[in-house]
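hey can u check if this looks right to u? its 180 residues, i copy pasted from the old doc so theres a chance i mangled smth
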Amino acid sequence: MLDRFESGLTFPAYLETVRKHRELWRGVWERARIPADVLAAGRAVPGSWRLLVLSEDWCGDAVNILPVVARLAEALPAVDLRVLGRDDNLDVMDAHLTNGRSRSIPVVIFLDEEGAERAWWGPRPTVIQRWVMEEGMKMEPGPRYKHVRAFYARDKGRTTAEEIVGTMSRCAPAAEAPDR
């Protein structure tokens, strides 16, 4: 997976390739801020991390999530982020299906210092994913997406950042005891 990570784009380079929803992508990126408590928790996670994100510019969830994850990576010195297009990397996507069947994005793959996959997260924060799968699927797409967009606007990326840091923390190697 390390070779795929190294072939991915940095977020600024990915942003230059965005064609659909270009202004929305830039707006979310410009407004994205990581709360101080989440940054402190992220800095406390041991190890160095590579986050490999599968995305496409047309995806409404990706446009609300990926800029937040990129800001988090930018603020944490031990985290590096790269982006791959989902549609050009279906083998990677198919190893990270939502509910074992859906090619939902974005997907954030957590690689440790050696490049081994430790976990993955996606396609959206747990609370809104649960709502989409339970209540949202009973609605027409227009009203459902309006509700999801309202969640992202209210949440301002906090839940995404907390879940990304939480995932790193859960899959981090145990901190070594200091030498005595």
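Confidence is low (pLDDT under 50) at residues 176-180.
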